Amino acid sequence: MRTSYRALVPMLLLTSACATTRPTAARQDILQVLSTQTAAWNRGDVAGFMQGYWQSDSLVFIGKSGLTYGWQPTLDNYRRSYPSAEAMGQLTFSNLRVQPLSPAAAHVLGRWHLARPAAGDLSGHFLLVLRKLNGRWVIVADHSS
């Protein structure tokens, strides 16, 4: 009986170490998605910004105008709402809380702010649902207000 406990302790320690490193890696990967999106937005590249989203008809965006389903309609809405780099302004995210839910799912709560000197600043909060699909974290649902 004593021998089996000795074998069990290293396995438990290894399992515990793996469990704690995965969320950290997931958080870093998810924060990188948001950082890449911010950089694309701030250079006026809406299509680049959209690379952080799931390219699927099942993507859902919830905003002040209601529900939008699909990657292309979401891109079209962004382009309509922000027709130029000046209208887009400079994006910052803050108060980010990344919460891994499983090895392949997470959500992020945070605040967004657009600094737009000519058109007036905009800001609000968001909840993103992300999934790891084909080895890459993507936003599958976005509720921004």
From TrEMBL:
Record keywords: Signal
Domain of life: Bacteria
PROSITE patterns, A to Z: PROKAR_LIPOPROTEIN
Cleavable signal peptide: 1-19
Protein name listed in UniProt: Nuclear transport factor 2 family protein
Domain DUF4440: 30-139
Organism phylogeny: Bacteria, Pseudomonadati, Bacteroidota, Cytophagia, Cytophagales
Provenance organism: Hymenobacter lutimineralis
InterPro entries cross-referenced by the UniProt entry: DUF4440, NTF2-like_dom_sf
Pfam families referenced in this protein's UniProt entry, alphabetically: DUF4440
Alphabetized SUPFAM superfamilies for the sequence: NTF2-like
